[in-house]
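Throughout this review, each integer encodes one residue's backbone shape. One record appears below.

===
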Amino acid sequence: MADPPGCCSTCATCLLCPYSCQWITAKKEKRKGLRTTKYDCSWFLFLFGVFLFTLVWLYFAIIILNDFHNFNEFIFRERKLWLDWSLVLLIATAVLISYSSVLLVLALCLQLCGQPLKLHWVHKVLLILTALVVAAAFTGLGIKWAEEWKSARISLQATGPFLHIGIVGGMTLLAWPLASFIYRTHSTGLKVFVLLVFCAAMIALYLAPLGISSPCIMEEHQLPPKPALVGHRGAPMLAPENTLMSLHKAVECDVQVFETDVMVSADGVPFLMHDEELTRTTNVQAVFPERAALNSTAFNWTDLQQLDAGSWFLERRPFPTVQSLSPGDRKEAAEQKIPSLEQVLEAAKQSNISIMFDLRPENHSDYQNFVNVTLGVILQSGIPLQQVLWLPDGFREDVKQQAPGVQHIYGRKRLENEEPGLHLNLPYQDMSSEEIRQYRQDNISVNLYVVNQPWLFSVLWCSGVSSVTTNACQVLKEMKHPIWLLPSSTYFMIWIVVDCVSFLIIIWAFVLMK
């Protein structure tokens, strides 16, 4: 390599210290004759790869926050330990991405200053550990939470245009140290190879919008109506889930449907409960410690009424919103009991809100009796049957005969040649934008669950989904418009301007560095 251009000795020393862990001035480096070797270059490439790897994981970590409450519940069921693991995830990811980013910036600055890239062995070990941790995280995600890969595909529809601009900007800035490297190396073959790789990458990026599609690239007048909101177990960010308080908070959020889960007690009283055990959402371990591990259906209604179904919400704080509750809401939450289906139907009737529910557990030996008992309570409640949305598949034909006015919701996609007018309830990962549009045209109502993040709600809104089930009704209620909506002509203009500006800056970088 040729001798590098002059660089402030103090600046060079400050860069070398954290990167090489040595207090050596630039002049001393020159006297020693130290240069960046091929071995050093390989470690720089490894550093760059680890940075990209952690950056991709950061993107995934932000995406899976929409579903992280499910992960918290899973850990509690397995380990009986409640913690908001999303904070652990974000803090660990921030540490990894910050570390690799700082090292990469130091390396690029050293290259611009003409200093050797002598990465210290401690950094090498830490980079290897970083790569292993991120690889383990991706592996665990693929094994235990594979549906999140589909979430990533959907997220690209929301972020694709902006990711493209960001990546083009990052690669454009990379042209400065790249030009410095090109002009300093004597190897013609290496110069040609690096330039070809960089040019191929930039051409691919400049043409990437040809393959980017998003339902939110449309004209304003093409935007479908805002999806209706379905409260997932009520409003669980504002009140203990599956309680009367949660239903009332959901009504305040303008939700049209209260989604819940129903079980039947040992003495035949349908009540609201999601988990098969009572340990997560009640104080059953304090009241009935010897029976805490039993199925919820093993308790009679008298026993269930002795349980506190609200204090756990204030103690464990399943969502950050719990901290901002008013004193009155805290008092009301602490007084919540397990409600019966009869009480909930009466509240739904008074609030003019529909109720959609699953009947659990589906594999119970007395499930047919559960269906009959639940139907009996619905028919006796006096609620208009069109406000009852029936999810369970078991004995559905019997339900249609006994309560013909009940609306039936199917947890599957439509069958071939099936008549229009269906109501479907599916995970948001299972429906593409194209399918949602087609179902809308065929007069098939689609509800997708569970949608908490505004970016995801925006994509589904642009796609034309009928409704979404959400934990964050208070957030989605305030959205009057998707986060972004771009006419195709505007997006085309942005694309061309970004590419042209990037190209000019790259040319400028190579001219100035020469």
